Amino acid sequence: MSSAWPIAKEAITKICHQSNFPTTTFTMADLGCSSGPNALLIASNLVQQILAKLLARLTPKLEDMILILVHVSLMGCRVLSIPGFSPPILSISFIPLLPFIGSQIPEGIENKNKGKIFMSSTSPKSVIDAYYNQFQKDFSMFLKCRAEELVIGGLMILTIVGRTSEEPWSKECTSCWDFLSSALNTMVAEGLLEEEKVDSFNIPNYMASLDEIEVEVWKEGSFSINYFEVSRIDWNFFDDAETKHDFAKCIRFVIETLLIPHFGESIIEELFRRYKNIIIQKRSKEKLELINLTISLIKIK
Predict the structure, then answer these.
(1) Local structure of 136: helix, strand or coil
(2) pLDDT tens-digit map of 102-133
């Protein structure tokens, strides 16, 4: 969120300097947000940035109305309509996706990816292709749906875990799933899990490159890319002794709802205990990073 904020701030500044910028309705959406302080922080920062640019152009009465709506919105309410306000004529979406989880497991990979839960350098080409094809379908649909929510000139800022390598099985985007796969396989070796259960489980996730994202944006046609940035986030960043947060918990939050229906709830605690230990061992020997892609898009049609 912090690395993406300068891009959001710059995008808002450009919008507010337009001569035809609206002084009535400004709609924002934070899709994929959390339910805690982080979500409120992002919304609050966006609102404050907009108000800082607009206060000189607002009447006191309208300023008071905006501040009231901001307060109501941050309290968890959704304002549906306000007398005298025109329909939204500009929208901005700040959408954190960690990672890009697809709509379904790619078709045609059942039992072709034995011993793994994600693609790797040893996965058959058919598995790699199936993952990419599923990403193309899902990301194109994602863009299409967001385009229906935005007006011409509206902005969408995406921050997505991706990769810089041309290889979709690169360590920079598969390590987190490789380690989880290793944890599952140790439980198979000890008779705690059936091998077939692991062989038949695959994660519907794809960590795209900027080139792949650019291709899909161009093909879908509703947006143009205004700006992009690549940043690297050390896995150590997720560790916080005071709150007892760690990278393993972050991944558990993302994937647990997919694991439980397939493996059952009884294995989850033991699985992530092993997963955390594997991460600690790997991290002592090598630097582990996530690649974060932040893309600013403008709706053009």
Answers:
(1) helix
(2) 788 888 887 788 888 998 888 899 999 999 99
